[in-house]
């Protein structure tokens, strides 16, 4: 078993996800024998998950306050966003569907705070669950990518859809 230890900005340390292998997975799943090639994760305990979620949302709220105050995003803001990402994946509220929920939140928060569309890495959940905090931060800072041109004009242009002037009432569509 490997317990992820997460360092918080106020110097506290909490437990994140637990990585299990072999006999530990077998016990969790009711299998009577160890299977060395079998790996699994177990979410953090309830209080640790809540702490990680509170820290993540606190960081995102701080980023929103900076944006509202007119402060331009900088490297520190991007690192704070990456830390919030890590905290969310280390303390998910739901096991099933948690990745999709977190991805959606990250894309929306990034667009709001940085005024840029974010392309979330394909394997962000696996990396955040298995990498150390330091290694994930380094990786994410280097690999987060924007989904195209950035800035308010580009974002508006990307999301603008052609809307027909005359619309049917729905019954005529067949």
3D architecture notes:
- The strands form 2 sheets. A 3-stranded antiparallel beta sheet has the order 1-2-3.
- It is of the alpha+beta class.
- The chain has helices at 23-29, 46-68, 75-90, 98-114, 124-130, 133-143, 152-159, and strands at 2-7, 13-21, 39-42, 118-119, 145-146.
- The N and C termini lie far apart (57 Å).
- It is elongated, with a radius of gyration of 20 Å.
- α2 packs antiparallel against α3, α3 (75-90) runs antiparallel to α4 (98-114) and α3 (75-90) crosses α6.
Going across the major beta sheet, what is the strand order?
1-2-3
Which structural class best describes the helix and strand composition? Answer: alpha+beta
Secondary structure: helix percent: 40-55%
Spell out the helices and strands N to C. EEHEHHHEHHEH
Q: What is the rounded distance between the termini?
A: 57 Å
Produce the secondary structure layout.
Elements lengths: L1 E6 L5 E9 L1 H7 L9 E4 L3 H23 L6 H16 L7 H17 L3 E2 L4 H7 L2 H11 L1 E2 L5 H8 L15
Antiparallel strand pairs: 1-2, 2-3, 4-5
Keywords for this structure?
single chain; 174 residues; alpha+beta; three-stranded antiparallel β-sheet; two-stranded antiparallel sheet; 5 strands; 13% strand; disordered C terminus
Summarize the structure.
This protein has 7 helices and 5 strands; from the N terminus they run E-E-H-E-H-H-H-E-H-H-E-H. With 174 residues, it is of the alpha+beta class. Strands 1-2-3 form a 3-stranded antiparallel sheet. A two-stranded antiparallel sheet has the order 4-5.
């Amino acid at each position: 078993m490997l317990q992820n230890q997460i360092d918080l900005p106020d110097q506290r340390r909490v437990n994140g996800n637990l990585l299990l292998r072999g006999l530990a997975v077998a016990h969790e799943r009711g299998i009577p024998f160890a299977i060395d090639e079998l790996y699994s994760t177990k979410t953090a305990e309830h209080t640790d998950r809540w702490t990680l979620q509170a820290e993540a949302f606190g960081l995102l709220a701080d980023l929103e306050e900076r944006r509202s105050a007119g402060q331009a995003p900088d490297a520190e803001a991007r690192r704070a966003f990456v830390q919030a990402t890590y905290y969310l994946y280390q303390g998910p509220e739901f096991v099933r569907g948690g990745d999709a929920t977190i991805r959606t939140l990250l894309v929306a928060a990034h667009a709001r705070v940085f005024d840029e569309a974010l392309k979330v890495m394909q394997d962000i959940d696996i990396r955040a669950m298995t990498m150390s905090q330091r290694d994930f931060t380094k990786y994410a800072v280097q690999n987060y990518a924007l989904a195209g041109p950035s800035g308010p004009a580009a974002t508006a242009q990307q999301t603008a859809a052609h809307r027909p002037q005359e619309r049917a009432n729905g019954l005529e569509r067949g």
